[in-house]
Design brief:
This protein is α/β, with parallel strands linked by helices. The chain has ten helices and 14 strands. The chain starts with a strand and ends in an 8-residue tail after the last helix.
């Protein structure tokens, strides 16, 4: 059976056609999101999704292929819409994909989808207990425990960047004091360096040149990341801990070198077994994989089995 997985991002929409048995991606396609543009009375991203689905089905000579859609925001409990989205792509909020496409569609949060994808055919394939952090502009995350994707009462579960690593720190974008996101995310580099550096790349390049300020800020960031990871390990007891996002992808060895001493000192290992720290494997396509997998099981309750 074929599956279609679609991941709606701020810049591009990534779509894949997958084989449900093997998880192989048979075809890929992308279209620009064009957030804010209207086509035929609907958001441009909606029309793009319809076009991508029609292209796959036409090429395969099939219709009614199960579809999953990954998108930013909090997904409704029934998996039919994004029920809360603020700041960008506001038209996603409450948009009924089933009505627009005339078919059943499974909708889930993009970070949740990325983890489902990594457990289906990525860095933690087949694992039943996994925590994932994505390190980029901010810090995203998701949790699978006992084979269940944790969504929570309102869909907030997995927003792991908004845990506290410094209770005296300022509130982040959701009000969390001293959050992991503010300690590590690319968006706060300028603030953390008093304006000397504007991005994690600049910070790392300076640290590698021996800049004392850059080295200190990077070391503090990695200490905070390790502290957050230890807390999450104690909370969820994962077998695997995935690190993804642009920072992990671009500086994996430096990230591991930065966190490993702190993990060695702080990780609770009651049986002597360490959590396996792995790099995300599917990159920007993880959400499409996860959306397709969710479509295959007809919902978000148990996407990994």
């Amino acid at each position: 059976m074929d599956l279609i997985g679609i991941d709606i991002g701020g810049t591009n929409i990534k779509a894949g056609l997958f084989d449900s048995e093997t998880g192989q991606c048979l075809e890929r396609a992308t279209l620009p999101t064009n957030d804010g543009a209207i086509v035929a009375g609907v958001p441009a991203w909606a029309e793009a999704v319809k076009t991508l689905i029609a292209g796959f089905e036409s090429a395969r000579g099939r219709s009614a292929v199960p579809v999953g859609i990954s998108a930013p925001g909090l997904a409704a409990r029934d998996g039919r819409t994004i029920q809360w989205m603020r700041g960008r792509m506001a038209d996603l909020e409450g948009f009924s994909w089933a009505n627009y496409l005339g078919r059943e569609v499974q909708v889930l949060n993009d970070a949740h989808a990325a983890l489902v994808g990594e457990v289906w055919k990525g860095a933690a394939e087949g694992s039943q207990d996994v925590v994932m952090l994505t390190l980029g502009t901010g810090v995203g995350g998701a949790v699978i425990a006992d084979g269940h994707l944790l969504r929570g009462h309102l869909g907030r579960a997995g927003h792991l960047g908004h845990i506290t690593v410094n209770f005296t720190g300022s509130g982040d974008i959701v009000g969390t004091p001293g959050s992991l996101e503010d300690a590590v995310g690319n968006s706060t580099v300028s603030l953390r360096t008093q304006g000397r550096f504007q991005s994690t790349r600049e910070l790392l390049e300076a640290a590698q040149r021996g800049d004392d300020v850059a080295k200190e800020v990077w070391d503090r960031s990695m200490h905070a990341l390790a502290a957050g990871m230890v807390s999450l390990i104690n909370a969820f007891d994962p077998q695997d801990f995935i690190l993804g996002g642009g920072i992990a992808a671009g500086a994996w060895e430096l990230v591991m070198a930065g966190i490993q001493p702190h993990l060695d000192a702080s990780e609770w290992c009651p049986t002597g077994e360490r959590v396996r720290i792995v790099q995300a494997k599917l990159g920007e396509w993880a959400g499409a994989y996860g959306a397709a997998k969710t479509a295959s099981v007809g919902g978000v309750a148990r996407p990994t089995r």
